[in-house]
Amino acid sequence: MKIGIVGLPNVGKSTLFNAITQAGAESANYPFCTIEPNVGVVAVPDERLEKLASLYNSEKTIPTAIEFVDIAGLVKGASKGEGLGNKFLSHIREVDAIAHVVRCFEDDNVVHVEGSVGPLRDIETINIELIFADLDVVEKRLLKSKKLIKSGSKEQLMEIEVLNKIKDLLEENNLVRPGSFTDDEWNIVKSFQLLTSKPILYVANVSEDDLSGEDNHLVKELREHAQQEGSQVIKVCARIEEEISQLPPEEKGEFLEEMGLKESGLDKIIKAGYDLLGLITYITAGPKEVRAWTIIDGTKAPGAAGKIHTDFERGFIRAEVTAFDKLMEAGSDVKAKEMGWTRSEGKEYVVKDGDVILFRFNV
Questions:
Q1: Which residues contact 223 (CB under 8 A, 6 or more apart)?
Q2: 165 near 185, Cβ under 8 Å?
Q3: Is the whole-model pTM more than 0.85?
Q4: pLDDT, average across residues 161-177
Q5: How crowded is residue 258: how many other Cβ atoms within 10 Å of its Cβ?
Q6: Is the dihedral of CA 208, 211, 215, 217 positive or negative?
Q7: Contacts of 14 (CB under 8 A, 6+ apart)
Q8: 318 and 84 in contact (C-beta within 8 Å)?
Q9: Of 20, 153, 157, 189, which residue is 20 to 30 A from 274 by alpha carbon distance?
């Protein structure tokens, strides 16, 4: 999973990126301190892995991972090349989802590119640039498709119909969302890699004082907007996340407790990212390693096996499945089998989050 971190300059993008990836991207109080997109791979926290490693006395644990891409601050005119905008917009096309960092704090010491703090105005500025960039792509694609229409294929006609539908939406300043299309149309939409079709998660960057307790008026504005759009909002304090990232693992829980927080901003973003993209985790476990695997919710057993190796999918025989909770309750896989909690599942089995699976295959 690849998540692009976007937003206007000086909203806290690079500070947040540094915190969640500890990658040390340059962070400064001026626009364009990040010229090339910084990429960091983050292990997905999963308490189940350590528990299973203890149960199996495993040599190592391998969590699944998320890739974060810190994309330099966009400004008005980015779609026309302002502030190297075209270059930055192209990086967004490569991500699965967008984490849009929105400034929801007042601080005279941190300059806002627009001169004042306004979450909805900031969102509109970014969205307009994404819309303009997509319009350019759609119009060029329409010209190309119309030249090929002589072939008269149903696929070509369908593509032109979908492109016109997208164009109408964009010209009315709307983002491209699944609700406006049939399933078949949406499959065509996805092939265009449009910026405005990416799922969006809003990250409200607040001050330390506003992190716990009631939302300030800026966050409330943002939540109302996100609700209308059908998007989620995660409230974080980038500076606090930076402090958390520098602590030893054993001290993080205590720090969060002192701050009145149940989990870090990173954990919130990861959970929201999984939800946005409809992802779940299944686990393979044994003495050599315990490993987490990310799949799309609804994936059947052979497809899940294919995440490990194509041979596993090609030669799939069956999956021996035990729910994590039942395995921990049993205390061993032998006991789980005795209790009847380990099931033998075939090709039609839909894998569930937390399934501990042993695949049987023959190639």
A1: 215, 233
A2: yes
A3: no
A4: 94
A5: 8
A6: positive
A7: 25, 26, 27, 33, 34, 38, 70
A8: no
A9: 189
Q: What is the mean pLDDT of residues 46-55?
A: 95
What is residue 16's three-state secondary structure?
Answer: helix
Residue ranges of alpha helices (H) inside 39-182 are 47-56, 85-92, 119-147, 154-171
The three-state secondary structure class of 42 is strand
Amino acid at 174: N
Residues 8 and 344: their CA atoms lie apart, in Å, by 52
The owner of tokens 């292990």 is 43
As a residue count, the chain comes to: 363
| Weakest mean pLDDT among 78-92, 107-121, 187-201, 327-341 | 78-92
Provide DSSP, 183-237. HHHHHHHHHTT-GGGS-EEEEEE--GGGTSSS--HHHHHHHHHHHHHT-EEEEE-
pLDDT digits (tens, 9 = 90+) for 267-317: 889 888 888 899 999 999 999 999 999 999 999 999 999 999 999 999 999
